[in-house]
Write a structure and sequence with these properties.
The complex is a heterodimer of chains A (461) and B (156). Chain A is mainly alpha-helical and 461 residues long. Chain A contains 16 helices and four strands. The chains are: A mainly alpha (461), B mainly alpha (156).
Amino acid sequence: MLKWLEYMSEGNPGFLGVSDSIWLSLIKVVLLIMPSLALVPGLIWWERRLLSWMQDRIGPNLSGTFTRKDGKRIFTFGLLQPLLDGVKLFLKEDVTPGGIKKDKAIYFIAPALALFPAFAIGGTLPWGPTVGLDGGPGLIGYLTPLADVEIGLLYVLAISSLGAYGLVLAGYASNNKYSLMGAIRASAQLISYELAMGMALAAIVLATGSLRMSDMVNVQMEAFWGIGGLEWLQNWFIFTPYGFVAAIIFLIALVAETNRAPFDLPEAENELIAGYHTEYSSMKFAVFFMGEYAAMFMLSGVFATVFLGGFNLLPLNFDELAASASGPMVGFFEFLHKTAYWTGPLVFLAKCWGGITFFIWLRATLPRLRYDQLMGLGWKSLLPAAVANFMVVGIWMIGQRLWGTAGGLGAAAAAIAIVVVLYLNIVASSKKANDPLLKRTVDMVDPGSSRTVTMVDTKEA
Amino acid sequence: MLEGFLPILVLIAVAALLCTVMVTLSWVLGPKKKTPYKAAVYECGVAPFGDANERVPVKFYLVAILFVLFDIEVVFLWSWLTVFKSGTTDQMIFSGAAVLIYLLLWILGDAYALKVNAIDWDEATSIAPEKLRDTPAYFESTEEADAGLSTVGGAQ
């Protein structure tokens, strides 16, 4: 198979007169899109079940239960529920409301525009080891990433920001006041958090020195904090002080970019009906959700690649350990090195899954933000923190070049100070926002008896 | 140099095809029975009035303008990010200092935007009803406002 892939990658004129490199690209694309497409029903099932367990319910567990001839029932844990929902939605009527007169075409393609970036975003994502066991590309290296271009991370940012178009055009074309409100909120929210997201990633790019996604992972497999003698410990960016700050900022921006709770203001059910997809029915409605889940999946992959060491299960370099070990441990570490190579894609999948579980956990835990709190968090806390973090990385790198690791440690202290400032900032802004609420006075007049009831909310009450 | 982007082109084509199929399929497969109620605009079940393409608060426009400004400033950084690490020590210090000055300008702009309350949304008047006092549309005079505020939410 390796030989075959090698031959394919040489770009010979192949099957049906189409270049082999196009066929190879198609194989790669199928390997990238199929998991995200096939896992969306699983993700929806997982979200519903996990939310149910967190809320002391059972959740969908009966659909897809088969009764055998002897009366025994076979349970599938409700796994078929999202699939059945999907089939049902395909067969439902596709209503175009009568209010939509001039924007019918936009109304039609807006869901597709919302789904498109979710599929296209993974184009530069390495979902498995790009360096084989013998130092060559290896079997997995031929299949991933789809395109190892120089601008990998920039491509991710560019495509992820395309998602705003789908939501804005859907809300605008619906000719519904709630939809328009949701669309405007979505656009303002997405562009606000994109700045913080870009700056958080800029700090990491500065430390990596490359925008190539495979370089991002390979840099994280170098020695921990650049300390000599620690080559066996990987330098995942989440373990570095600046990377930790960037990871938190990126994670918050990620939740906001995918419109997930607590940042789901564009589709806030109890304020805006359903926001930008109020007027959508049948599969078009579901396509928005498919886009949301697929984007969550892929962006979790970006988070895993940039901050969590990509496809590595543990932050350990087993080949370095094998080189320094003696006796029977050498064979053991070499076995682990091989296992880590072949389980890489599965570990990457597991990390994406973990990211989505985190999103669901957030949804079960946190109440929705108010709009001024949302904008305040994005512009007043995350963006300054990301810029400060970016400057610290620059200073840290100059310090490391001039004075070695001590300079890096000095910057570590600065980064911790940033975290404290960020924390105090958020606490202060939330206190300020809550103040009117604490001294709120509401007078209620009963018109029948002209009796006035004064309700006062205070801290003590 | 551009051969590396061929798989991305294929990916974009496949993704566009998938999206089109998804959107079109229910239009093809589903039944089509139009009724006036089904075709009505859904605004919380209340009969809809007026056109939805109304004016929206100018604040959103301000946010978009600020985004364009700050995002373009970040775009200038991207080319520098990739070469910073591989430079000599002198280049590193010189370009690092230049970018720091550039970022100080950036911070100045952000601080100004924050100072003029460019992205401060008003608290909802339901949370701070006293803010209604200065809203001309609600009350003719301050006296009326004071009288009205004591019975916010009640019928006169």
